[in-house]
Protein 1
Amino acid sequence: MAFKRPDGRKLDEIRPMTAKTGIIPNADGSAMFTFGKTVAIAAVYGPRMLHPQHMQDPKSAILRVNYDLLSFSVADRKKPGPSRRSQEISKVTEWALSPALDLKDFPNTVIDVQVYILQADASTRVAGINAASMALAQAGIPMRDLVCAVAIGKMDKELVVDVDKDEEDFEDGEGATDIPLARFANSDEFTLLQLDGKIQPEVMNKAIALADKAMAKIYEVQKKALKEVHSE
Amino acid sequence: MSSMQLTSLTYNTLLKMFSAEKRFDGRKLLEQRDFSVEYNVSNKAEGSARVRMGKTDVVVGVKLEVGTPYPDSMDKGNLMVSGDLLPLASPRFESGPPKFNAIELPRLVDRLVRESHVIDLKKLVITEGEKVWTVIIDIYPINDDGALIDAASIGAIAALLQTHIPELDENGRIDHDKKATKKLPLLENTLPLSITFYKLGDSLFVDPTREEEEAADGKIVWGLSNYKGKEHMIHSCQKGMEASMTSEDIQKMMKNLPKLYDDTLKKLKKFLK
Amino acid sequence: MKEFETKNNEEYEDMGSEPVSRTVVVPGEVVATGEDFLPGEGARREGSDVVASRYGLAEKIGRVVKIIPFSGAFIPRRNNVVIGRVSDIVHSGWIIDIDYAQNGFLPLMESPRFVNKNEMDQFLAIGDVVSAKIWSVSPKGIDLAMKGKGLGKLEGGFVFRVNPSRVPRIIGREGSMINLIKEKTGCNITIGQNGWVWVKGNDIDSELKVRKAIEFIAEKVLVSGLTEKMEKWFGENK
């Protein structure tokens, strides 16, 4: 029997998305992005001075990402302070974003990206990447392209787009497989690719094809948020 | 946004302006900004609120956990206030171990809430002497444009007033799927808020923007409530920074505290459901 | 060959004889197609397309397509006037925070009169503000010069910051906007390319009006006819 999504969505349906830029006046660039009930906010500070000096790169700015969950964003309160999980997500987020950035104009500096999850309903890291991508553009960082991200899931044998928490916890049959992906908006270059679960190689290709379609929809949301600020 | 430190130029101008009772945004020295309160910052919190005061933006969440009572208060639930100055909120905040301001903020809100007894901790016992509810208030500034402590206290009270106690399952563990219906037991006629006075030269002022706060020489945080709905009661106080306060300063603050509290409470009541 | 397409949020402004069209673009977006178009600042060529590398207004003047960014870090260039704060004193000069990822350095000999090494802080102390010109930019640092009209230690008034990318708009075409503000308020104003602005007037109210006016302009981005709008603003904000 085909997998029925707990919230009734079609298999390739993304939860309602919202996006807004400029939400943190102190930051050089900032944005909020939501997938249904998952809410991510991102702030960009930089390029700015980088200390200690030995971390500086004389040829380019370095990108530094800090991702974390707010204590009350999850049902079982998360104790403050970075966890191993948040440190790993910070690093893969950095790798997801840096290929899109043109950092050569700012040697010896750092661009700090802060990503926080206000409310977690799975797909938090990809929501964070979508927010960070808009925030970087808004900060005026020279970029090749925006970065779009989504989590593809496999529930038993069925592929779904935009995994929520109920699906993340699914256990029947082959269980839940979570595949967070990020890609340049306008070219076939994936910059985030992670996977947990069980998936056959040929099904993986189908997952990528589903992701491509989803990325286009996410790109429209990001573009609209960046452009609507300036329609007078 | 710039992390350039305050210039002596701007400091001297602010000194002159404050002596002439003028501020950059046109307010009077003892005039507070308007604020708005939104709820449901996180549906995973037992209560939450977001306060926007000028460009200052603070979120506060309340979580309840099942815990054990402290040995010296076996018949009471527990309270913990925590928070962090997220690097997101200001070019001044850094990642890493908390600096003093990050430690001070939750502690000041803690004393204010605890000393006013607004949370009826005696009603938070699950099994006498064994299991009690622990109320945890988490404070996170999202954008710092001054007066974080005052904004945080508004957020904490607003969030507490929205907080419900989770249901427990047969094993005494929290069942997040069951709808929570019991409100957190509060003394709703004793709502504590913090009012912080700052000093620049000889001038006292409240609710600074970040620029004004960085110029200030002295500060003093007062926690007070409308105790039992009958009178103004100060529950906590902490003087900070280097400039000293004169007895005249203190008299001026005592004269103005009640009205500042009343104005804030009146604005907050517009947002209470 | 595909013509440059009109989109919804476009703005036409007559700049003399050449019509200019402007569209809001995001990085990675195709701004024009065809070998006839040339990528200017903030744009690049990808195949036969001209693509945006910045978030801003794509401006097409003749065949050149460039992007005017809505915001962005200040990139110091020789001869830029900057306003900075003295952050440290070393034996050979003053370290100036110019709100950039590198500090500026003002050598001792740039002071307008002879300053003894022991009296350096009497001329410029930590926390003081200067307006200076960038003499040179290198990986080692940014050297500043302070000999010249309108440069030097700034006294009185106050300083505040706007996004550096807004500075051209605040200055206006051939200084038209900044001159309008000076005229309406009677204040002395110096604008650094690094986004810092110094105002000094005869009274606090005029100085506050300058700040309000400049912050108002800095917020507006897509507006044509800004000078007329500001004339109206000054009329309403006496």
Protein 2
Amino acid sequence: MKRTLLFATVIATAWFVSTAFGETGNELFQKALVRERSEGNLKEAIKLYQQVVDKYGKDRALAAKALVAIGESQEKLGESEARKTYERIVREYGDQKEAVAMAHARLGANASSLNAGIVTRQVWTGPKVDVESTHAISPDGRYLSFVDWDTGDLALHDLTSGVDRRLTNKGSWSDSDEFAEESVIAPDGKKVAYSWFNKDGRYDLRLVTFGSTNAATPRILYSNEDIAWIAPFDWSADGKWIGVNIERMDQSVQVGLVDSGSGALRVLKSGEWSGAGTLAFSPDSRFLAFDRPPFDEPEQRDVFVLAVDGSREIPVVVHPAMDTLVSWSPDGKKLLFASDRTGSTGIWGVAVEDGKPQGAPELVKANTGGLFPLGLTRSGALYFGVRVGGPDVYLTSVDFNSGKVLSAPTPVAQQWVHANNQADWSSDGKYLAFHITPTSPAGQHKLIIQSMETGTTRELKPRLRYFQVARWSPDGTSFLVNGTDFKGRQGIYRMDAQNADIALLVPRKVNAGSTFPEWSPDGKRIYYFKQNSQGDEAILERDLASGTERELFHRKQVVRQSLSVSPDGRYLSFIGSDPAGKESALMIVPVTGGDARVLLTLPLGGRFTAWSSDGRSLLFTKHTSPTGDDGSEVWTIPLAGGQPQKLDLGGGSIRGLRVQPGGNGLAFFRPTGGGNLEVWALENFLPASKASK
Amino acid sequence: MLLLAAIAIPLGLDLYLPAPENNPLTREMVALGKRLFSDKRLSRDESISCKGCHDPERGFTDGRPISMGVFGRQGTRNVPAIVNRGYGRAFFWDGHVKTLEEQVLQPIQNPKEMDLSLAEASVRVGLDVGTISRALASYVRSILSGDSPYDRFVNGDRKALTAEQQAGLQIFRGKGNCTACHVGPNFSDERLHNTGVAWRDGKLADEGAGQGNFKTPTLREVAETAPYMHDGSLAALEDVVGFYDKGGNANPGLDSELHPLHLTAEEKRGLTAFLKSLSGKIIEGPD
């Protein structure tokens, strides 16, 4: 069962149970849930759950549920009290079968993880944390490489001093669109192999050597025009080989080894379209472990071990669950993997000898949630990244003429908390569709359609590996999405609103960037962004019947997310560079062609625009800092002239403005809690770990 | 000894060549398999061997639309090329067999091919059936095609393909949508598709794996393996390109990946030229 579904079920169940037992208990439980799930404040959550037990103990189902939550939080904190909590549930709440079953499962299967001595500690938080593109802690546990997204440079975080420094120096985003991505520190702790998105629009593999204070000039280790993406995931213990994942220009995928000296590539294994996840060398460097989906099963992954001499591949973990590789134990006797086979994601271990599994997997650490493995140190500490919080869609109502907010923003989704974003309205304004972001790296994206009258929902799961920004067709039968299918084909897809069938409308080149399509009000044309032959950002119109494409506007820089069509279909709004190319500006351009009109310059920039339902004013987000990371404000400006008005929607970041057709509803999403990433270390969880790597 | 230690995998193919644990690729078994591959005693009338249909000089095919068996019996389908089958996951045109070890025994028993019981085959060659199976599978596993102009091109030699072939490669990967099925180093997704080849006069002339589905064949050495399709109904590569340009043959089970391509004459020539770049170096046997 996918973790996302399970998470949603847990939230829904909690909501239902607590509602049934009284509003106050429910409120307190929800408050605790928010502390736990969105803020990651486990200690505070435990206190609140305990209050639920103390104050509302007569409601035994709610109390038992709260005790389970307490036990789970204690486990996450590595507290041995978790065992006592579960034992109490079994002892005192025998009538609460579900809670008792969960407690039994924890007590039975999690014996090792409930032992005292396991330590989980947070080692890095803050806006710079980037765990999606780094794959290995330095062997001494001191450094993590990461991408500094302020510029796109490769950087190094010193976990001891907390100091960050850049290992590359590409200049600002306006100087260069290039950037670093996946990276892994060498066993000697002095080099980093990393992928680099280069000026030709594809990735190459690079190597940089660093000292205590400086870094040498990086060198390109492997570059090939037929390779769209290459990413390093691990080094062999002797530093000779770098394990890489590759995507070819034909969208096929490969696992390979790159010689760290000569740069020669040795392809070990090819797949059609579904690639391997994390790669990890065994400590003796004889094997490379990885996870991949079995044939035609995108929602399942299994763990395999491949001999680096190409002699054999061995399935080590085969199970209907989502099983993803974490690492080898330092002595090479165990493979660690994350699995949701019990209903919640935990870390499991399976004994391995000569690449072959020995016996059944055992749970090592329960309830870790979706994690980004960062490898083990020589001392046997496992480092991993987690995402805390996430986006939520909010709904408010606004008098667009006066700029007055008529109702306070409230979250739309009852489920999928901190995982829902990018809403859009049906043309009759009665439904909202919003995108669900997977909460684990290998999860699947989906779209939820929610009735605004009844709150009922239905789910669309298109056969897309990835998609974003669904735009509902005026006739309600389909959506436009930016997406990539399971065969790696990127572009604008039309998704059926009933059965989620997909059809590729506008293919786009590999690595070309998202297009953010919008419908014309009559549904006969679509508008989207694309880079033109001069390298400018262009807005294109496509007639769906004929397939003909027409450029409406181009400018050196445009914020791609900002395209919005006026209700009468005559204008497009967006945020681009002003005619002098110096400042960001809120602009509109007629769809019939002609000059763009600058409505307002935005010195600090902005990102999203939306038309009021009567088309008389335009809403836009305005950054409150140059990067927009510190927050944004929503403003409205009348088209006929007049001063812009700020909407009082509170602080923080606001994204994805969508106005209710014919109404005064405004949907948007907040990346709640920043969608923060954190790095944690798990220590003392392996018996008698030995340093061998 | 393990053959992988001695064999050089051709450029463009994976280093990992799958083999079952009970049949590791050894020089001895490949050599034995090669001998059996040419042994006419494995056919009832001792008139044909495996090699009779899988001729190394023709990309391991026979050049006929439909294969010919013992006593001049007509087969049912075109002889498939057997290069790089060690990387395969499904065998025969209908993909009904999942291992090479099982596959190699079926033509021996097929009345329209070699028409010999396995018991008799065992007696004739003096080997148990398991050994025959493992040896033949090992030899077939050793038949590898790579190091083609295409392989050299995608590994950095940008002059390995002509301009026309490079244009054809772009069609292959883009407008032609060929990589929807012919993907990866072996140019096959090893899956089943209905292209409509079997649809004749409003019905299926051959159900294949069911509903007119047939396995995607490799395109390695495709220029050497005419005629084409499961029934050998298309004589030349130009015919195949023309077939797919029309979107295959419309029928109720037509694969959703197929649609009219509207290729220009120049694009068709480029695509055909590209397909010819997939002929490379074939290695086989223990040497």
